[in-house]
Design goal:
The strands form three sheets. The chain has a six-stranded mixed β-sheet with strand order 2-1-3-4-5-6, sandwiched between helices. Strands 12-13-11-14-15 form a five-stranded mixed β-sheet. Strands 8-7-9-10 form a four-stranded parallel β-sheet, with helices on both faces. It folds into three domains: 3-141, 3-Layer(aba) Sandwich (Cytidine Deaminase, domain 2); 152-255, Rossmann fold, CATH 3.40.50; 336-462, Rossmann fold (3-Layer(aba) Sandwich). The longest helix is centred in the C-terminal third of the chain and has 36 residues, at 306-341. The protein is an alpha/beta fold. The radius of gyration is 29 Å and the shape is elongated. The chain has helices at 3-16, 73-81, 131-150, 170-183, 207-220, 233-243, 250-261, 265-279, 306-341, 357-365, 413-420, 436-449; strands spanning 20-25, 30-35, 59-65, 86-91, 100-106, 116-118, 155-163, 186-195, 224-227, 246-249, 346-351, 382-385, 393-396, 424-430, 457-462.
Length: 466
């Protein structure tokens, strides 16, 4: 830092009795000037908080501290949240006399758990000349950490699990959320749990926890937050804006898994329908282009905004998919009617996702339904005759999961139809899972919500490698 600059900004702040801050890029060019009050400086909203894994924002904040004491916890938090190259506090003394400066910068992830380093107060002319090398070293370490993660998965994610009911099994919910992430091809780099008496209206979790998560994202090279509880559209936007990270919730994650595993025409349409229903209320004014009028010659009034057009197209697509799925359901109902006319009893395999239903189905019918150690590997019901008896058919169904998203209940329509016509249900459960009882209880609860508990049911504990 040039001493004349430090002297000039100090004298201006003393004269105004206000904090003055200046954003400077790596070339030394002033980008913006901010003026606060005597104790605080407004958050520079123009700073790019995230530039990808392993990157700092490329700007340094120089500000005057009228107290002369140096960086406050709030100043250091701003350094962390904005991923600044550095924060330089000019310690105001007497007007006209050269002030001291205090430099703080971030640190790569380390065993000591330190987020930043505050250098010793010094004369402006004695600030390390090769500070750029320090920044490059920090970024290089962050990139190495991020690259190690990206070799294992396409995205690095941080799990955020809000807990509002202390009776819930947090460990099970966290393990299940991690399994969903693995199925979706995500690398989980950190997990954050917050127990609260009630959800925060703006962020779902507390603002302090949001900032903690943002810092974890910087140090772990994560670019995605996965919430274990449903987010409203406004909460999703607020968290994304506050952290600079992409944000999805558990429902959106399950929808993504369904989209990956949907191979039949019906399955793909069910998933698209669920995604449209989920995303429709999340369409918002994202940028200026969304508010430009797109009416033309012959249009009555000013026409529709781009946002209104997107919403109308989504509603039209939803209506079209619903019509097509009704036609497919009618064909399926006709096949069931023929089976019932022939008095062929059907046994349906039901249970929690990844319990081994498809493995049992293949063994009993000789079919080759996809079997994977992943959640929701099966998304469409399959019906085959038993190898041991042609007088009975067996149905493999979509696995259930606790707190089934409302948007996905339609995707289980085919399963509900087949199960409702079954003469017997075999509830398959993984005997090796330590949360066996919870999974069986969740399956029975979902069957009850779907009015399917009146069927005769047999519990089958599945374990292939005894």
């Amino acid at each position: 830092m040039e001493p004349p600059f430090a002297l000039a900004i100090q004298d201006a702040a003393i004269l105004a009795q206000r904090r003055i801050g200046v954003l400077v890029d790596r070339r030394g060019v002033v980008q913006e000037v901010f003026v606060g009050d005597a104790a605080d400086l407004p958050l520079p909203r123009t700073v790019s908080r995230r530039c990808g894994p392993g990157r700092l924002c490329g700007e340094r904040l120089v500000f005057v501290d009228l107290s002369g004491r140096g960086h406050t916890p709030g100043d250091l938090e701003r350094l962390r949240l904005l991923s600044l190259d550095a924060s330089v506090a000019v310690l105001a003394g007497q007007a006209g006399r050269m002030p001291l400066v205090e430099v703080a910068h971030l640190l790569p992830e380390n065993t000591e758990g330190r987020f930043f380093e505050v250098l010793k107060k010094t004369h402006p002319g004695q600030v390390p000349v090769r500070f750029d090398e320090t920044v490059r070293t920090i970024e290089a370490q962050m990139r190495r950490d991020a690259a190690a993660l990206m070799r294992r998965a396409k995205d690095a994610a941080i799990l955020v699990l809000p807990v509002f009911d202390r009776a819930r099994d947090v460990e099970w919910e966290l393990l299940e959320l991690e399994a969903l992430c693995r199925t979706a091809g995500l690398a989980v780099v950190a997990s954050v749990v917050q127990k609260r008496p009630a959800p925060d209206a703006r962020f779902l979790i507390g603002r302090g926890k949001v900032r903690e998560v943002a810092m974890l994202g910087l140090y772990r090279g994560a670019d995605l937050l996965v919430f274990g509880a449903p987010l409203t559209p406004s909460q999703q936007r607020s968290v994304a804006k506050e952290t600079g990270l992409r944000v999805i919730d558990r429902n959106q994650l399950i929808l993504d898994i369904f989209a990956r595993h949907a191979h039949t025409v019906e399955g793909r349409m069910e998933v698209e329908l669920a995604q449209l229903r989920y995303n429709l209320p999340r369409l918002s004014e994202k940028d200026d282009s969304m508010s430009r009028l797109t009416g033309g010659i012959g249009a009555l009034g000013p026409g529709e905004t781009k946002l209104e057009m997107e919403r109308r197209r989504a509603r039209d697509r939803i209506h079209m998919l619903e019509e097509r799925l009704l036609a497919i359901a009618a064909d399926r109902a006709e096949r069931r009617r023929r089976r019932m006319k022939q008095e062929v009893p059907m046994v349906a395999l039901v249970g929690y996702t990844n319990a081994g239903k498809s493995t049992i189905f293949n063994a009993l019918t000789g079919a080759d339904v996809l079997v994977e150690e992943k959640l929701f590997a099966t998304l469409s019901p399959t019906v085959r005759r038993l190898q041991a008896s042609n007088d009975v058919v067996l149905c493999d169904t979509v696995g259930f999961i606790r707190d089934l998203p409302e948007e996905l209940r339609g995707a289980f329509g085919a399963t509900v139809e087949e199960v409702s016509s079954a003469s017997l249900l075999i509830l398959v459960a993984d005997a090796s899972d330590e949360h066996l009882c919870e999974q069986v209880a969740s399956t029975r609860r979902i069957l009850g919500e779907l009015d399917l508990l009146d069927k005769p049911m047999v519990l089958a504990l599945n374990k292939a490698d005894l």
